[in-house]
Every structure is written in structure tokens, then in C-alpha cells.
DUF2971 domain-containing protein
Amino acid sequence: MNSTLLKIIKSREDISDYLFHFTKRNNARETLHKIIDNNSLKDIEEKGFLCFTESPITLLIGMFKIFEEYPDPMYSPYGIAVKKDYFFNLGGRTVVYGSSNDKKELLPTSQWRFEEHNPKIRDFSWLREWRLNIKELKLDKENFFVITKTKKELEEIAFDKSNIIDIEFDGDVSDGQFWGSATGIIGRSFKGISMEDLEELNKLSKEELEIILSKQNFDEISGTNLGSFVM
């Protein structure tokens, strides 16, 4: 890719280096937890492919505010992001939008990429969709990050309490007994960002997003209180 094209892409905030899969409905948070627990994204709707959008998350705050007005939203601010080049190398491709006649021009082996498009009647082009023609995608934490609505939810996923890698003990001797406490040391499971972060930072650029993610290291640890004891 030549240097001029790289400069153009870098200058365009509407072009993302990532693709995003957002969970749906009023149980979107629970669906995200299932994805994380299984360490994979599955084609639960049995479409025959997995769907992502290339619309940058930094530009989607307004969209999610609209969806919040509905009890069973089409998309919710929970999901996963994958590096676009990684997704492409797996076989992911852009959707082909067109009329039903256009679909006939595609080879049968490529028709999974097709989405019918008719301006003002049937228009999903705003999704800027990519698809991957598989039924399950394993999550490689080096190439994915997690999206949540709140900072607290992100912390719970990024530093999952089931991922305790060590235990530290502390305490004091008093009245001939040892009064102690135990702290579980938790390793980072995923990188991620919350919609709260995006709103607070206001108009976050894709370069700033990359800086935030690059500062999240899988060597990072957190702690959780495992309780007290007396000996």
C-alpha cells in the first residue's frame, strides 16, 4: 500500500482498522458473557455466516442512544471487535449490496455475501457489513477486544475473577492470633473499551482508541478480596 493511500486512510475517521459485532435485544449483556465464556462467536441464528460492521465504534454513540429508546433493540452497546486484516485473512469479506437481479450475477459460492438493497424500501447499507462464511469463530485475544456499556462491566470481563493466577496474604498478630486477609491476583483476559469511556473522552479519534488499547497489556493484573481469616 503506497504512502499516499496510507495517509488518506489515517485521515478518515469513518474508516476503522477494526470490525465490530454487537449483540442484540434486551439480553445483549448476557449474550456477550456467553461469547466470552465460550471464547467463541457462534452463528446462533443459523444464517450460515457471522456478521460484523466496519462502522467505527467512535462514531456510533448516537446510534446506540437511538436504540436505547426501544425495549428490544436491534443492536446494543455490547460486543466484540476484531482486527480487519485478521478477519480478511480468515476469509471475511464485504457484503455485496444490490437488487435481487444482481444476486444472480454472483457465483453460488459467493452468494452468502449478498444483501438485497433497494433505496428507501430495503436499505441496510448503513451497516457497512462484513461477513465470514463460518459457523463459529474462536476469539484470539491478540486480535480481538471487548465492548461494554459501562466501565464496571468492562473491568469484570477484562479481569475475570475466575482467572486468579496467584493469592497474596496479609495481616497482623493481635491477642496471640493472626488476623489475615487474602487477595486474589487476576490476570487480564481481554482488552476492551466501554461506551462510558467513549462518551467521557468525547469524539475519540481512531488513533486515540488505538493508543488506549495499546496501553492495555496482558501482563497487567488486578486484585479481588477473597475474604478474611483468623489463625
About this structure: The chain has eight helices and 14 strands. The first helix runs from residue 3 to 11.
